[in-house]
UniProtKB/TrEMBL annotation:
Stored SUPFAM superfamilies: PP2C-like
Gene Ontology MF terms in the entry: [pyruvate dehydrogenase (acetyl-transferring)]-phosphatase activity
Highest taxon listed in the record's lineage: Eukaryota
Ranges for domain PPM-type phosphatase: 202-576
Region (Disordered) residue spans: 346-373
This protein's name: Protein serine/threonine phosphatase 2C
Amino acid sequence: MRRAAFQALRTARRVPAWKVTGRKPCAVSFSSSRSLGLRASSTGKHPSYLPAPLQSSMHLRNFSIAVISTAVASGAWYAYQGTGQTSAGLNPTSSQLRSYSTAGAQAEAPAEATRRALLVDNDQFFTAPISGDQPLSKHTDDSDRRVLEMLTPEQATQKLRKNEESYLVNRGKGVVRYDIVQVPSNSPIEDDHAEKIIEVPSSVAAANQGESKSDWMFWAVFDGHSGWTTSAKLRNVLISYVARELNTTYKAAAADPSLLTPSSAAIDAAIKQGFTRLDDDIVHSSVDKVLKSNSRRVAAEMLAPALSGSCALLAFYDSQSKDLKVACAGDSRAVLGRRAANGKWTATPLSEDQTGGTPSEMKRLREEHPGEPNVVRNGRILGQLEPSRSFGDAFYKWSKDTQDKIKRQFFGRTPHPLLKTPPYVTAEPIVTTTKMEPGSGDFLVLATDGLWEMLSNEEVVGLVGQWVEQQQQLGASGSNKAWLKSWFSFGNKSELPVEGPKATDAEGQRRPIRQQQYDIAGAATRFTVEDQNAATHLVRNAMGGKDKEMVSALLTLPSPYSRRYRDDVTVEVIFFGEGPDNRTVTINEEASASEESVKAKL
């Protein structure tokens, strides 16, 4: 039985969907407690397998599988990697095969429901129909079960929307709404995010005429790596560190009659100070406390955020000045969407991807570490770490003596053989300033690199513009649609409503590598609008859009294998506008997950 099914998989003609170079996954078998295919050839031979290509710009292929069952079989077997060794067993014969089609007066057994399965073989994956009601699964241990039955489009939508949030900002301060979503690939997800609105009295920051207070608004996304602890630490405290530095800077300016408000450079310096002070606490102050305690338990707790790492992207909006500051440490990205005179959107990157492959970062590192030709190798720091700015990542910041001491007394790894003059990685961000135009309907997209691997800046901005148009067509009446009143409709619906990229926009920006991996056609017709949450709308289209089979396949892949095809994704979309002022921030329930209540962040 098992051998027959394995042979069937090996002899099937498969058209690859996506290819990834690198180490192949281990061969694993998946079984169920009952037969799945249940229609055998009447001749007793292996059934034929006819590939049925899907009509899709993403070139996902599927093929039919009939699983051979025997009268005494206890289950059917699928290979996670079909080229592995098969188990010894009896070859099926016509007397062993069980057919569900009968001739003459014999009644035909009722057909079983057909579902979809996802099969992975030699760094390629395929979809196939299966029958029956038993899930296709693999038990990894007593506490975990990986279900490989392919998600239906409805289940894929549920997974996309599981972590979505949306807030309506009714404070009359230039921001009317922001949407958030997270879709994990790692388990647990290594991304994180944070948002906060701080009401600032005029004694700290000068308010607009006739107002006693102004708002400081913060949004941030964190792309963790080598674990989730650093990004979780940033979620809890980074905004507070930055706000404390801004408070000091604004108070000093308010006390000076010649200033009243701090200069743009002073605000930039305060944000940088907040970043670097927090990283110093994570990487260096933690070591001092651990060495004093001489406790492995304390070391495990306090050093975790230092041993893993995280990029950070923070946006700070001052409602009084209408200045938007974007601080980036790492390869997450911020892109501004703004309407042009012709009614289309323009996409303007407000950050630069900071990696070992970015020319400006390569130049900086070589100047800071002269005589070290391998400080950047193959686009990575010391040939290993890709982001050149990040929190944590202590193995690129601690001295060799510190690393040896931590390893000897507690735990750790051997220092990198190329380590000579650390630190090689910094948490100091690059800060950009943009004057926002709330009355014109600007919007800002913040996202970890999982999104930018799949969509370009122009596609992201055009998709948000397409989504806004759809919201208007559904009607701008009601409290949840009031924020749309100053937005407008677009003309040509066959294209995304966005201007093409400028020649200078590509500097410091990596192209979407997944479009090559998935063999995606560039036509905008592959996109769709199905979600009430703008961030979820972006992630759906990044993973396939109208191609529901592609979306389901990518979301079905289990961790850690899914990491070969998609990264953790965290997206925030912030809409600027002249909205009502009733001093509230409310949950937009129609665009938020309903599984658990979400608190408004004010």
